[in-house]
Each structure stands twice: as structure tokens, then as C-alpha cells.
Amino acid sequence: MTILFASDLDQTLIYSRRSMGLDVSEAELREVERFEGNPQSFMTEKSQQALWELSESAFFLPVTTRTQAQYERVTGIFKDGDAPRFAVVSNGAVILENGQPIKEWSEKLRQQCTSDKTVIEELMPKIEQHFSEDWVLRVRQADNWFVYLIVDRERFPEEKLGEFTKIFREIGWDMSLQGRKLYFMPVSITKAGAMEYVKERVNASFVAAAGDSLLDHCLLESADLGLFAAHGEAVKSSIAISSHIEVTRQSGIRAGEEILERIAKVVLQYK
Ligand SMILES: [Mg+2]
User: Fold this and answer.
1) d(CA 12, CA 226)
2) Alpha carbons 164 and 61: distance in angstroms, whole number
3) Interval between CA 244 and ligand 1 midpoint (Å)
4) Does residue 271 register a pLDDT over 80?
5) pLDDT value at position 253?
6) Which of 153, 170, 228, 267 has a CA between 20 and 30 Å from the CA of residue 203?
7) 15 C-alpha to ligand 1 centroid (Å)
8) Which residues form the domain of 152?
9) What's the CA gap between 62 and 37, in Å, rounded?
């Protein structure tokens, strides 16, 4: 029986110094990503070992909103840097097979976005209309698929997020606030859609999924077992969560450990 472990990376399995929490010692940390010469993301040694072991008995599928280039920096999640056969990047807009994007998949989504008019050229004027405030520090585009703003959280009016979400949803864009990043994602680009494609390709009969943000919600809903990190945007929001989805007891990098421990148990049970 093939078990697919489809997991978000940032603030689910891997953590920046800002997001890891305070109850972890330097000696426990393993660097998993380096950016511009500096260590950027970490796991605890315990998590890293657990993930490496898990990858031997389950099919590990990274499912991230990172672009391909950003994803390729996260080498420490694989034993000896050996990337798995599939990875979902750009929130599901791109599926990598043996490191190469599956063209037909992305072309189909590009057509869908064009016919839905959820393309960046249509979005930008709307963003300029609503977000001219000084708490927008930078505007970034991800390989022409979606947009995120880097915001000043101190000044960001969180009470308006519900209203913004409604406005942008009406024109086909989902929003997600993760740390300092405010994402605008075409509704047709989902982690769940890409996971389903890989599930079929590897003929998996059970899917365990983990995540922390609203962009992970559909992924966990589509799985047989879901795990949400307690510290994440999704748990803190008011969305309805199905009964096959559990929430970790712990937060920060310890939630990552808890997720991997739980998944290892499930894999043992189904093997
Ligand atoms: Mg995340």
C-alpha cells in the first residue's frame, strides 16, 4: 500500500529563526536552507531524522507556495540532498517530476487563469486601488502566477482582512496572510489539485497531509488524515475544519516534530 505524505514546508516542517519559537536549543537545530550565504531555515535533528526515515516507507511529497528556485534551496529535507520524484511548487501551479516542471500541467492551469481573468495584469490595478497604504513594503510576483505583498505587520490593519478577502474573492483571488507575506492566489491554483494529480501518478491509497496556512486548507481537506500546526493562520482563522483534520498540541518547531511523529505512527499502522 502506497501512502502519500503531502506536506507544506514553511512553518510546518521547516522554520526560520523568527518562527521556530523559543523552546529550542542551538545544539538541536539542523540547517536545511541557506540563502545568500546565510542559514535561513531549520528543523530539529529529531524532525530531520524522522522525515528521512519516513521517506523510506511513505512517498514524501513537498507541497509548497515557494517557487521552484526558492524550493531548490531547501536541500536539508532530503537525505544526502536526494530530491524525491515529485514536488509541488508555486502553490500547485507547477509540479516537478525528477526536478523538471510537467509542462502540460502548468499549461492547463495557465489557460484556466486566462479564461478566469485571474492574471497578474488584471490584479495589479485592484491591488493599487486597495493597498496604497504605507504598510506595503514591497510587491512581489511569483513566476507570473501570483502576487504577494511584504507588509509591515505592526501597521497592517488586520481587522480589515475579512473585508479585503471578500473583495478579492469576488474577482477570483484567494488571500492568505503568512508572517509578513500577504498572498493573492488565483482560485484555480490549489495545492489540493496538484496533490490529486501526484496521488494518481504514484497510485497512492492513503494520503496524510500537513500544513499551517489557509492555502493548505484544501490540501488537508482532500487528504485522508490532515494535521494543522497550532500556530498557523488556518487554526487562528474562523474556517470550518473537518473531523479528519487534527491540530497539534505544540507550536513552532515543536509542532513540526509532533506532525512527523504522528505521521510515522500512521504509516506504521497502515503498512
Ligand atoms: Mg506554511
Assistant:
1) 12
2) 32
3) 19
4) no
5) 98
6) 228
7) 9
8) 120-186
9) 24
Q: Are residues 211 and 150 in the same domain?
A: no
Å from CA of 236 to ligand 1 middle: 14
CA of 11 to the centre of ligand 1 (A): 5
Tell whether 97 is covered by a domain: yes
State whether 166 and 240 are in the same domain. Answer: no
What pLDDT is attached to residue 133? 72
Q: Quick check: is 125 in a domain?
A: yes
Tell me, in angstroms, the distance from the centre of ligand 1 to residue 20's CA. Answer: 12
Collapsed DSSP state (helix, strand, coil) of residue 66: coil
Q: What is the CA radius of gyration of the chain?
A: 18
**In angstroms, what is the span from residue 162 Cα to ligand 1's centroid?**
20
Same domain, 95 and 211: yes
Question: Would 166 be classed as within a structural domain?
Answer: yes
Distance 229 CA to ligand 1 centre (A): 9
Question: What predicted TM-score, i.e. pTM, was given to this entire model?
Answer: 0.95
Q: How far is the CA of 57 from the centre of ligand 1 (A)?
A: 24
Q: Is 164 domain-assigned? A: yes
Q: What is the 228 CA–ligand 1 centroid distance (Å)?
A: 10
Residues 182 and 87 in one domain: no
In the reported structure, the alpha carbon of residue 7 is separated from the centroid of ligand 1 by a whole-number distance in angstroms of: 9
- Which pLDDT band holds residue 80 (cuts at 50, 70, 90)? confident
pLDDT for 238 beyond 90: no
* Cα–Cα distance list, 231 to 39, 106, 264 (Å): 23, 32, 21
208 with 103, same domain? yes
